[in-house]
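User: Is it possible to get a 3D structure for a protein together with its bound compound? The compound here is zinc ion. I've pasted both below.
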Amino acid sequence: MHQSGRKPKLLTDYAPPAYLIDEVELDVALDPKAARVASKLKLRPNPDLVAGARRLALDGEGLSLQSVALDGIRLSREDYALKEGSLSIASVPAKPFTLEIVTLCDPEANTALSGLYRSNGTYCTQCEPEGFRRITYFIDRPDVLAVFTVRIEADRVGAPVLLSNGNLIAQGEIEGTGRHFAVWHDPFPKPSYLFALVGGDLACVSDSFTTASGRKVALNIYVEHGKEDRCAWAMDSLKRAMRWDEERFGREYDLDMFNIVAVSDFNMGAMENKGLNIFNDKLVLARPDTASDADYASIESVIAHEYFHNWTGNRVTCRDWFQLCLKEGLTVFRDEEFTADTRLGPVQRVVDVRLLKTHQFPEDAGPLAHPVRPASYIEINNFYTSTVYEKGAELCRMLQTLLGRDGFRKGLDLYFERHDGQAVTVEDFVAAMAHASGRDLSQFMLWYTQAGTPELACSLDYDVHAKTARLAVSQVVPPTPGQTKKEPMLIPLKVGLIGANGDELPLKLDDDTPLAGGLLEVTQREQVFEFRDVPSPPTPSLLRGFSAPVRLTTSLDPGQIEFLMLHDSDPFNRWQAAQTYALTLLTAAARGKGDRARVTDKAAARLGQSLGATASDAALLPAYRAEFLKLPSESDIARELGRSVDTDAVHTARETLRAAIGNAIREELAGLYERAAPSGPYSSDPESAGRRALRSAALDLLVGTGEPAELARAERHYREAANMTDAIAALAILSHLESPARDRALDDFYARWQEEPLVLDKWFAVQARAARPDSVETVQTLLSHPKFSLKNPNRIRALIGSFAQANPTGFNRADGGGYRLLADQALEIDRFNPHLAARLLGAFESWRILEPHRQARAKAVLEDLAARTLSTDSYEIVTKTLAAG
Ligand code: PHE
Ligand code: ZN
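Assistant: Yes, that's possible. Here is the predicted structure of the complex:
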């Protein structure tokens, strides 16, 4: 690997491109081993720059150059320099000129899945962030925007469907050759990362959407033949997303056609290429018998996410890759709002915060911590992180909280008005918000530049005589790699004061005006807010709706937390109180050794009672009630412990609490289980899905008791399941056990679904996640299963990814076997798909919070990895993970 590729790139080194490309004409002749790409570029010197040396450098990777011509004259070998990574031409005109370049590339040998590759025989492309340079030489950066016209030519039989961005303008046969062609034109200037092309033999499911202004848009979803009956949910989600974006944000679709293609080999979830989204088929295909409610939910949000990018990402794009959160954070925020508005209501916040805390908090607390807008990177592929995505979304949400829904909308409108068709920065986005609202947001910018999760400590004192409640708040932003000193941030802190009878007390600060929405703005390291006219001692409800991505510590005692878990009118905080209560018990138990690593039955019974009461409250949404029955995960407990984590003790603590709660409220859970039984055919509506979630959460606690009757119930649940949601829920519960029931269910599932790749992935994943002493060996054995293959990323993620990221006891097994397994597999994968290997290696990010013995094992494996030949992607992850904190 080139050492030069390992030098960090810096945000402060940004310089505008020396040349602009206004138009691109591509002529692509598809061929499995030698695809020929003829490109005609209309270039001109960037008028914003003072004329300097007229040297032109184009990016290119793994291409075989056939010819270069400048203004129609073929260049000879001396006129240009070719090295790995670039083609440069020493002298080009100081006025507009045309460059024609012919190259060959090898789609079939492209196992990195970046550029032009083949998935199950279908030609497809992935260009974000730097894949276009693997298709042709280009100025491959997001601030070069061009109008593309693309001619694709291919074998008629092998690739009857030929797609690119924009609108189809011509197509036909090439007589006597068995080949045909299609010409696509995209009128919107776009950066190269949004280019896409597809060629294959695919089935098409069509529909249409009429926009608010009355334009009819053709909608097509392309899938493998035979999968047409699994597109209905994706299509429905798309139409609802299109409508919602018009209603909530006034954003209409802008082309006559919107195409989605599902492919089975894809490094990520999906890609927002202009007018031609390409999806991992896992995020398109769904039928009640093959996809679970969780799959339906991901499909809906990713379909919406990619569609929303049409405005946030495509019409207004990023100046450079440091600004990635500009499109990703904002678009995640938009898809979260979509799901909250149209489907889950307040439950969405619980789901989103759980995701944030599970993935982003550990990232922010570990060796890979980086600001939402990083200031440096070695490999940009490593920065599609939950910090950029999920924390990035939280920053947009905080802006909306600070400015109000209308204020945020005005800011976003101004952003589009000012920057449509441009490649911009985070500063441009925040400036639009500031100008539209008249607020100074300079302190808010720290959220984009300072890494680390702020720690917010709150304590409330009540003065009986003065009838005042003083809320003392302090904030600390912990040091992160490369950032030791931090400034205090602007933290929107939503609060409520609850009276003894559960009523909300009025919130009045010094100046007599009631505090709108309970929103406090914390701006200093230490701050006191004094509430007046508080009639009786209140219980504070703090950080309502998780109004900022911080770690909150409070002075609340267990009685007050219990009170909130039953009475808080803020649904998020009510759920959070239940989690906090459980976590207090769990961390105490996990810190104990041997027999002390248990939760007392009395405390558990008390928690069980409260959880049971909420879960049985028919006035609440079933999906919300289900969340109360899900105990904090092992990774929640580990994160809360923060140091010296023994993953076995964590597991034991959780299992004892699970059993104790199951025993304490067994009758009630059994009643819930019965009452939530399905009453009709499968429907994906939130009510039905919520009932299924509630029922399987109850089942999980019941089986935790270890009672044979409950095991039998789980086996029955599996056998009688009429949809994938119920089947996989039962299978997951059974998978941890040592029981013939487990083996029977796994065998049955395999026999039924072995020919369905996406469903078979679940079979691999459920075994990889099972917390059993032999899980390392199980995964090892499955690696040689005839249906396992390293060629498909979904399969790799199902087995190796699930094991490393979702099986804390197995992966962190005390003998280090889990670490070795991941390292060996990642090394092999790194040779053909660095991006995927580096993502898997992210599982090592929390090694420093482990107890010393496990830390030593992890460190040894990481050091061994660091001594091997690694791709730039994996090199960056491994060296940063190892670097001293
Ligand atoms: N931009 C894609 C998304 O969020 C993610 C992606 C990144 C896909 C890189 C492929 C490669 O929506
Ligand atoms: Zn995105």
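Residues 386-419 form the longest helix (34 residues). The mean pLDDT is 96.
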